[in-house]
Amino acid sequence: MNGRQAGAPVGSQGLTPVGSPNRIKRRTAPGLGSPRFGSPQFPRTDAQNPESSAEPTRSTFAERIYQSTGRLRAHPEPGSSFGLVSQTPIAQNNNFNMHSPGQLSQLDLGAGSSADVLASTGSPAKSGAASAAAALRRAPPPPVTMSAPAVKPVKGGAVQASTSAIPATVIDLPSQRMYALAVLGLLVAWKLYDAISLSVDAGRTSFYLFVKWCLLDSAMWYGAWFLRIPRLSILSHTMYALIALSVFINLNLFYLTMSVLTLAVKPVAVSLATGWLRSVKSIPWLGPRLVGDSDLLIDSFELDEAHILGRHTIHILPHSLTHMNPQGRSFCIDEAQLRTEPWYQKYASGLFGHSGQSQTLIPILINGTHPDSISYAYTSFETGQRQLRTIKNTGALQMETNAVYPTLGNWVMATYYLPVSEVGAYEIFSVKDRKGLEFRTATQAPPTIVVTCPQAQLQWLDNAHTGDNFVVGSDGHASICQRIDQDHSVESRSTDDGLLQVVVEGYEPIEMTVVRLVNGHREVISLDGIQPQSMEAQPTHIETLNATQIAAIEKWSRFKTRKSAYTLSDTFLRPGEYVYKLESIRDAANHSVVMSGLGGKGIFDGNKAAEGKATSYMARIQVHRRPSAGWADALLNAELPLRLSDDRARKSDYALPLTLSGTGPWTVNYIIVNGDEVTQESKTFSKATDSTIDARRPGTYHLLDVDDKFCGGQASRTNITLVQAPKPAANVSSTPITAHECGGEIGALVELELTGRPPFAVHYRERNLRFPNSRPITRIVRTQQRRHSFKVMPDMAGTYELEFFRLEDDNYPSGQPMSATIEQAIHAQPSAKIDTLNGRISSRACMGEELELPVRLKGQGPWELVYNIVYENRRTSKTVSGITDESYTIALGAFDNAGEYTIELAQVKDGNQCARDLIDVSTVVTVREGGPRVGFQCPDNGIHVLDGEQAQMPINVAGEFPVEVQYHKVGDASDHVHTATIRRKPQQQSSSQLASVIAYGPGEYELLAASDICAGTIDAQRARCSVHVEAKPSAWFVTDSLRRDSNDAHDTGIWRLHESCEGAALQSAFELGLSGSGPWKIDYRVDYWATGNARSGVPSFTDRTITHSLVVLQTSTLKPECCEPGLYRYTLLSVRDERYQKPQMLLAAHEAVAAEAGVTVVEHLITKSPLAELRAYSPDGTPLDTSSSSRGSFRRQPQSIKHCLAPGQSKSDGDAQTWAKLHKYLPVFRIEFEPSGKAPFQAWVEVFPASGPSEVVHLEDIAGYSQPITLPDHVASQIGRYHMRLVRTRDARGCEHQFVDPSEVGLGRADHGSAAIAGGIEIEYIEAPNARPASASPAANPSRNVCVGDVLAFELRGLNSWNVDYSYNSARRSTSVTKRLFRRIADVPGNFTLERVCHRAANECCSEFDDLSYAVHDIPRVLVSGGKDVYQDILEGDMVDIRLDLVGAPPFTFTWQRRSIDGAKVLESHTVKDLDVFSYTISAASEGTFEVTFVQDRYCQYPKA
C-alpha cells in the first residue's frame, strides 16, 4: 500500500487519509440507512420507472476534495449501485445512460462540479467494464452516500439530460464558462467604446453601428442558448427577450438622436469616460499614445481654477438693539381658558420655558449678542400701579432665530417671546448680555396693551313671552308657533321684548356679526358700536388714593373689560327654521374672534344648521306654521244645500271633505245648527289626506277651530247646509180631443201637476182595450216643468187605458210608486208617410230627368193627399185625389232648374172626409245642372316613357265621384274603347281632382265620354294626349381621326389611333359619338399585348385586360393608355344615360353596321422608347464596371474611378501640356443603346465637374448602338469628383426616353443632395492634402502665440480621411483624422508644430509644413491675501490693507470687485491696467468681500473670453 490506504486519493495535497482514525465521517441524509440498489437513494436504472426518485443528499467534505482534484470519475463504490459496473456491464451502460452529467449537479459543491467531472469521461457508450475496472484501480473512491441524480422525464417515459453542446473532453465545463464570460466582457467593452466615441459628436448617429451590434448581440444570445453551458444556459423565450432588449438598447445608443439613454446615461457616461481617459493619459509615455487626440478630452478640457485664489471679507460690527412688539400688534388673554389651567402653570412657565395655552406671547426683537436678562414694566388696568419685572432665565423663553452672523461670533438676530397671563400694559425696560452691556431700546415705543379677549354667547331670556307655545327643548333648541299680524289677528297680543339675547364681554366698544338663517335665506346682522349700558361704580377705597393714583386709574380704566347684553327681537311671522349664529366678535383693540372656528366645520355652513345640541354661539328656533282647516274645494263647488234622500241612487249621508294644513295629528272642532238645536262635536285626524266629517242628519255645519301637534289655528268660516229631500207626487187629469168630421173623439189631452225637484219622469202603460190580449206599451213622459200636458192620439181606433205607475225626480231617481188610470175612447185618423221599405229613395237627379216618390197610406180609403214642392223659397202645393191603394207613387219632374227640392207631405183625408195634417214628413232631392267635366293634363310635347314601361296619362276630373271615363287610341284599326273609373281620393274634399288613366302603348289617345249619375262633357282643348317612347342611348368611336396601316406588323385591320412613343405625352385621343340624353356612363374594356408578345392582337393571348367606366356630360373623348409600350385595344361594352339607368349593351364591331351603331372597337400602338446606359472602359478596352445592371437604369453606388495627382499636376494648378500627358491614362466612357430603338440616335449627357455648374453635352447622329463619349477639357480637367449621367435619348422615330426630370437638370450638385447624382459614372481626381489654420481658432494668430487651454484647429483639404503628424514639446505623434477639422488642445506650456498631412486612402500623397509652429504660454495667476479666504471683523473707521500677488509675464491687467457679504450684489468694481510689478495693495474701510474676477498678462488671460 506504500503507506497509504486504498481509499486515499492520489495528489490529495497532504489531506488526512480516509482510512486514518481522524478521517472525516461522511454524512448521509437523516433517517436513511445504507443505500441499496433499487432503494429510494439509488433507483433502478430501467426506463420503465422514470418517476422513482429520492431527495438528494449532500456530499461529504472528502467527496468535494476528490472532485476538486479531478480524481472522482464515474467509478462506483462497492456495495452501491455503481458497484454493479464490474459485475453486469449491461447494467452499467443503462446506469450511465440514465445518470447523465447534467443530472449530477447536486454534487457540484467544490471548485468544479461533479457534472463537469463526470462529463469529462466522454460518452458512456465508449466506456466498458475494463475501463471501469482500470479506473477503480487508479483511484478507488471512498464510500459515499448519494441519492439518485435528478432526471427530467419527457414524453414517452424517456429521460432527458441537459449537457453542453461542446463535449467536456474537448473543453471542460469550468473553462467553457470562463471563455463565455470573457467573450461577453470583451463585447460589452467594445460596445461601450463605440457608444462613447459616437456620443462625442452631439446629434451624430450611425446606422452601421446599430446594425452591427444588433447582429453581434443576436449571435451572442443565440450562442448562449445553443451551447447550453451549465449555469450559463438560457431558455428559448429568454433568448428572444434578451435579443429584443439588446435591439432596444442599441436603438437608443447608436440610432436615435434624442433617446432615453442619451438623456439619462450620456452625461454620466461622458463624465466617467473623461475621467478614465485623463487617468490613462497621465501614464508616462504610454498614456498619450493610447488616448491620442480624443475629442472627448478636447471638449471637456477645463482650466485649473487655481489661477485666481483667495478672497478678503471685511465685516463692520453693528450695535445690539432690542424692541418690544416691533409690529405694533395688540394682544388679548382668554380668561376662560386661564381659569381652567392648573395653578402651577404660571410658575412652571417661568422655570421651564413652557407657556400655557391661555398665555399670550409678546415678541421682543433682539439684534446683537444673546441676552442674559430682560426687564419689563407692567401696569395694571384695575389699580393703575406700575411694576418692574425681570426675567433672568432667558434660555427658558421661546425663541426664533431670524438671522445668524457666524463671522461676528455670537451675534444673532432673534425674536424672544415674553409669556404674559395678566391684563395690563407692558413696556421693555432694559436688556443686558452676559458682559453686562445694555442693549439699545427703540425710542418712543408705545406700551403693549394686553386686554381680555372678547367673548360672547347666545342665551334664551328667562322672562321670555310664554305665549305661542314657546318651548326650549333638552337639546337647547327652541320652538314657537307662528305669530299672527296684530292687524289681522283675532286675539290681541302685545309685542314681547324678544326671546334671545347676546351676552358680550370685552374691551368696548364691541362689534359683532350675527347671522340669521330663515328657511335657507342667509341674512347678516352687524351690531357695532356697543357702548356700556351703565357706568360702573367707583372703587370704594377711592377716598384713600391721591390725585396721581386716581389719574392713573382713570387713564387705564378704558381698557378694562365690561359685560353687556343685547336682545335679538323677531316677529316670527313666517313659519320655518330660524337659526341664529354668532359669527364673529371684535373689540376696540381690533381683536376678532370667529365663533365658527370654535366648533369646526359643519356646525353652520351657511345653508342649514347642524343637527345636535345648541352651542353658546348658535341657537335654533323652529317656528311652526299654525294649522288651518276648511271645506274642500270640491265640496264648495258642489250644488248647495246638500240633500239627504232615502233613494238607493242618492245618498243618505255625506262625507264632507276637509282641507288640513300643519303637522298631524289634527283635532277639528265644529257645531251643527238645526233650527234651535245646536250640537258641538270634534274629530281627530292622523293624516291630512282623506279627512272627512260624516254628516248623517240635516242642519248647518260650522267649523270652529283646529289644533295640530304644535299649535292651534283658525278654521274656515264657510258653512255647509244639509236638508232632507221630500218625496215627489203627481196629480193626473185628462180632457178628450173631439173632431166631429172624424166621427167623435180622436184623442185625449193629459195634464200633470208635479211636486218635487225637476227633472221629472212619469211612467205609464198604454193598452187598447179593443184587444184585451195585446201587450201594453210602456211610455215615459219627461219634463223639466212642474205642470206639463201631452196629447195621446193613436192611429188605431178603440178604447185606450193609460195607467200611471211610477214617478221620478232628481232626489229620487229610482222612482216612487204612484197609481192613476185614465180611459178614453178614440176614433182612428188617416195617415201617410214616405215608403222606404222597398229600397233607398234616390236623393239626386239630373235636370230634365223624372223621379218617383213612393208613399204608404193608412185609414179608410179613398184618400186625398196634399203635398208641397219647395224650391228656393217658393212653395208649390199639389193635391192628388181618389187614391184607393195604400201604396201610391208620386211622379216628380222633369226638373227644369238645378238645386235642392224639398217634397213635403202636408195633409191626408180619408173616405170619411176626416182630414189630418202631417208634420215632418218630407224628403230632399238634389238636382244637378250637368255631369262631370274631364280633360287630359298632358304636356304639350306629350308623355315620354322608357322602352318597356307603362305610361299613365294625367286627367283632370270635376264632378261627383265615382266618374266613368271612356277613351280610345286614335288610328287604332280595332277602334277599341277603353273604360276607366275615377274614384275620389282619400281625404279629398273638393269636387275636382287630378287622376290618371293607362296608356296601352305609344300613340295619341282621345277622350270619348264621361259620366257619374249624369252625362258629362269633354274639354275640347284637352281631349287628346300623345305618348312617346324614348330612344335607347348609344355610343361609338368616330373614325375621322383614325387610320388603318396595313404595313405595320401589328396591324389587325381595326381602326387605329396614331402610334405614340413610350413616356411621351399623348397629343390625340379617341373621339366618342353619343346618342341619348346626357350625361352618359360608358363601360369599356382595354386589352393589352406587350411589345414582346408574338401573338399580339389575338384576344385569347392578352397580357392584361382591364374594364373601366367613363362619365361623359357631352360629346367627349376617351384618353388612351400612355405608360407601357405595346398594343392596346379599346372595346365599348355598354352605355347608360339620364333616362336609361340600366346599362344598354353595345355590339362589338370594328365597322359601322347602322347609322346609330358605329365602330365600338379601336386600337392604339405605343412603341418602346430608346434605352441606353453609360459604361466605363480602360484605355485597352477592359470594362471597369463589371457589375450587372439593367438597361436604362443607374447603379445606385457606382464604382468610383480615382486618380491621385501630386500638387501642380492638374490643369487648375499646372499647365495644359502636363494635363495632356496625363489625359491618355484616363478611362474611356461609352454610351450603349438597346436594339429595340431605331438608329440614328441622339443623346444628352449631363456632366457635373468638380466645381461650377453642370453642363449638358448633346451627342448627335449616333449611327450604331455604341459610341465613345468625348468630354470637353474644361469640364474634365479639374481636381475633384464629378459625375456623368444620361438625361435623355431620342431615336429616328422621334421617341424619347427621359432619364432625369427636366426640372432636376442642373440641380444635382453635392450641396443639393447626393441622391440626385447617385446614378451614372463617378470620376475623382485626388490632389495632395493641405492644412490651414481655422479662421476662428487661435491657430490663425499670425504671431503664433497661444495659451494653455486653447484649441488649435486646422482645416484639412482633400479626401475625408487623413494621417496627421505633429510634435508637442519635441514629442512626435501621428493620428488618423476623419473630419475636415483637426483639433488639438494646448494643455501644457511649450511648443506645438504641425509637420505633415497625408491621405489615408493614398498615403503617398502628403503635404509638409514649416510655418505651423506655435509657442504655448501658461495662464497668469493672482493670489488675494496669500491665496486664502480671509474673514476680518473691524470697527467703524478702521482701515485694512489687502495684498494681491501676480504671477505671469508683465504688464498685467486685472479687475477687482467689492461684493456684499452674501455675494448677491456688486458694490464696486475697479480695473487696474499695465501693471509692471508683481504685487498690488488695496486699502479698504468698507464692508464687503474683495475678490479678483479677471487677470491678464502679456499673452494670456483668465478666465478666457
Describe, in plain words, how this protein is organized in 3D.
The protein has 1505 residues and is mainly β. Strands 16, 17, 19, 20, 22, 23 and 24 form a seven-stranded mixed beta sheet that branches. A hairpin with a 5-residue loop joins strand 8 (371-380) and strand 9 (386-391). Helix 5 (173-199) packs antiparallel against helix 6 (207-227) and helix 6 packs antiparallel against helix 7.
Blueprint of the fold:
Blueprint: H1 61-69, H2 89-98, H3 114-119, H4 129-138, E1 152-153, E2 159-160, H5 173-199, H6 207-227, H7 236-255, H8 260-264, H9 266-281, H10 286-291, H11 295-299, E3 308-309, E4 311-316, E5 321-324, E6 331-333, H12 335-340, H13 345-352, E7 360-368, E8 371-380, E9 386-391, E10 398-404, E11 412-420, E12 424-433, E13 440-441, E14 448-452, E15 455-460, E16 471-472, E17 478-481, E18 500-506, E19 510-518, E20 521-530, H14 547-556, E21 562-568, E22 576-586, E23 592-594, H15 596-599, E24 618-624, E25 628-631, H16 633-636, E26 642-644, E27 654-661, E28 666-674, E29 677-685, E30 692-695, E31 699-707, E32 712-714, E33 720-724, E34 729-739, E35 744-755, E36 760-768, E37 777-783, E38 787-792, E39 798-808, E40 816-826, E41 831-834, E42 844-846, E43 851-858, E44 863-871, E45 874-883, E46 887-892, E47 899-909, E48 915-917, E49 922-928, E50 933-936, E51 943-945, E52 951-958, E53 963-969, E54 977-982, E55 992-999, E56 1003-1011, E57 1017-1018, E58 1024-1029, E59 1034-1037, E60 1056-1061, E61 1070-1075, E62 1080-1090, E63 1104-1112, E64 1117-1118, ...
Parallel strand pairs: 3-86, 4-87, 5-13, 6-14, 17-24, 26-33, 42-49, 50-57, 51-58, 60-67, 69-76, 78-85
Antiparallel strand pairs: 1-2, 4-92, 5-7, 7-11, 8-9, 8-12, 10-11, 12-14, 15-18, 16-17, 18-21, 19-20, 19-22, 22-23, 22-24, 25-27, 27-30, 28-29, 28-31, 31-32, 31-33, 34-35, 35-38, 36-37, 36-39, 39-40, 41-43, 43-46, 44-45, 44-47, 47-48, 47-49, 50-52, 52-55, 53-54, 53-56, 56-58, 59-61, 61-64, 62-63, ...
